[in-house]
């Protein structure tokens, strides 16, 4: 389905991003997978994904990705999530959420946009239900994801006339290490069987980018199912 396409996926060492990278490779794409964890990066190779050790908070490392060559599909999945009420959460948490969830995808998009435009390709932002609704205790993370929604919506208008599609995915609770950490912060049990399977988020993304270019899926709001 994606034979001949080249994709780059951030957050490819874990959770949703890993599933997206592996499923894109299975669909025939050449896939570059980004992350920091060297052990999990090495594991990507067995699934046909080329690993790149990149800290997305380091501007020079992100800018160096300009060297990767042609690119059709860019998927932003890397993210962090901290919880805490506005009155109590350290201001550094706000900065961390903004650095990884908002600044990094904007910078990486700027670096790679000429390639995606040349290919009339696809950009995918993995956002969150928290990018549409800000619940108590979720302010810092939600602010970064609301910002990411604004970037994606604005970018879509800018690049659609050039043939580029921009998709935002808003998953609910998904069974990944991030969700396990979230449940710990909430003081609640981690029950992966009740959450969305990251493979299902990935398959929705792979299906959307594989659609003929007469179709443009702009938002995917994926909630936990009724069970
Ligand atoms: N899980 C959920 O319930 C859920 C729900 C809604 C939205 N989301 C969103 O979905 C996306 C993926 O989340 P996930 O649940 O799959 O999370 P995850 O399993 O915790 O994976 C996070 C990924 O982000 C990468 N990352 C974090 N900081 C980085 C940095 N500074 N530089 C480079 N890579 C960095 C990690 O790479 P290393 O570990 O190798 O550094 C890892 O691959 C995130 O944007 C998240 O906000 C998740």
Structure description:
With 227 residues, the chain is an alpha/beta fold. It is built from seven helices and seven strands, in the order βαβαβαβαβαβααβ. The protein has helices spanning 15-26, 38-45, 59-63, 91-119, 139-159, 177-186, 198-210, and strands spanning 6-9, 30-35, 49-53, 73-76, 122-126, 165-171, 219-222. Strands 3-2-1-4-5-6-7 form a seven-stranded parallel beta sheet, with helices on both faces. α1 links the parallel β1 (6-9) and β2. The model has no long low-confidence stretch (mean pLDDT 98). The chain binds NADP nicotinamide-adenine-dinucleotide phosphate (NAP).
Question: What's the short version?
Answer:
The protein is an alpha/beta fold. The chain has helices at 15-26, 38-45, 59-63, 91-119, 139-159, 177-186, 198-210, and strands at residues 6-9, 30-35, 49-53, 73-76, 122-126, 165-171, 219-222.
Element-level helix/strand string: EHEHEHEHEHEHHE
Quaternary organisation: single chain
Approximately how much helix is present in the residues? 40-55%
Q: Would you identify the regions where 5 or more consecutive residues have pLDDT less than 50?
A: none
Task: Please compute the radius of gyration using only Cα atoms.
Answer: 17 Å
Distance between the termini: 30 Å
Large-scale geometry = globular
Largest sheet features:
7 strands, parallel
Major sheet: arrangement of strands: 3-2-1-4-5-6-7
CATH superfamily: NAD(P)-binding Rossmann-like Domain
**Strand tally, please?**
7
Structural class: alpha/beta
CATH architecture: 3-Layer(aba) Sandwich
The CATH class name reads Alpha Beta
Count structural domains.
1
Overall pLDDT confidence: 98
Small molecules bound: NADP nicotinamide-adenine-dinucleotide phosphate
Compute the number of helices.
7
